Known about the structure:
The chain is mainly alpha-helical and 352 residues long. The protein contains 16 helices and two strands.
Amino acid sequence: MRKYDGLDATEAFYALHSDDAIRRLKKMRSVESKTEPAPQVPKEDQEFAKFREQLRRDGWFTRNPLREAYIFLLVVSMVVVGTMLAWSHPLLAIVLIGVGMQQAGWLGHDLNHARNTSYVKYVSFIIDGWINAFDPQWWSDKHNTHHVATNHPSMDPDINNQPYLFNWPPPKSIDSHLRRYQHYYFLPLYTLLYVSWRIQSFTWALKHGHYQRLIFAMLPSYIWLALLPLTVSIGSLLLSGFLVAVVVTLSHESEDMMFERENSYVKMQFRGTRDVVCPDPITEFLFGGMQYQLEHHMFPSLPRYYSSYVAPLLQQYAREHGLHYKSDGIVTMYKAHYNTLKANALVAAREQ
C-alpha cells in the first residue's frame, strides 16, 4: 500500500494475491478520500484484466502436482547424488549441487507465488530451507516489491546493487572509485549472489523472530554444507549464485529505468522487462522458466511450465493493443547488459 500511495494498485494486487485475499478485499467497505480523488484504473490495465481472467477460465493457472513432484525429485536427486560424490568426485559434486541449488531456487520461487496451493509450505521447508537456507517471507517481501515497482530505482531491490554495481549514474555520496571497472568485474561478482541472499535471509529471519524457521529449516542447510569438503560447499554456492545472477540480471537491468513512476502496471512491465530466447534445451533448463520473464511479471502465479504456452497468447495480445513485446537471444542481451554497465561506469556522478 505504501508503494502505491496515490497510484492505482488494482492490477498489482490481483497479480500477486491469493483467492482468499481477493475475497477479503471484496468484503471491505470502500472509503472515498476527502483530500484527493481516487486514482483511475488505466485503460491498458482494464483491458488486461479481461485477458488475465480469460486465461484463468481456460485453466492456465491450475497447478499440476505431478509436474511439480517431478521437479522436486529431480532437485533432491541432484543434491543427494552430489553429496554422495563430494569426496570421490568433487568437481562433479560441485556441478550437481550447484545446479541443484539453482533449480531449488526456481522451484521455490515458483511455489512462493502459488498463493492458492496448500502443499507449498511443506515443499518450501525442504527446497527453500534445507537446500538454500532462505526464509520464504524474506523472499516474498523482497521479490514482490520487485514485481510491483519493476525498474523503479528507489524501490526495486533487484536492480539496486549499489555500491557494488551501478545501473544508473549514482549521486556522489554513494559513488565508488571501483565503478569505472564494473563492466570488467561484474561476472566474478555474480558468483556471490547466493552468499548475499543467505546473509540477507538469515539477518531478516533473526530480526523478525523467525527462530523456528532458523533452527529447523535454515540451520540444517549450514550443517550440511559444513560437513561437505570445503571446496565442494564453497564451489557449489558460487556456481549456483552465478547461474541465478546471469538469469535475473539480463531481463531487466538494460531496460527502461523508471525514475518517474509509471501509473499503468501493464505498461510498467512491458517497459521494464525483456524475454530471453534460449537456443537449446540445456539453457532452457538452466533458465528455469525465467526466460519468459514478461509472462512471469504479467502473471506471477502462472506455473512456470505453462509460460511457453502462454507466451504466444501474450504476444498476440501485445500486437492487438499496441504494446512492445521485447525478446532477444542470450548473446545479444549479454552485450546489452555489458554496455549498460560500461556506460554507467564512465558517466559522471550526480550531485545528489
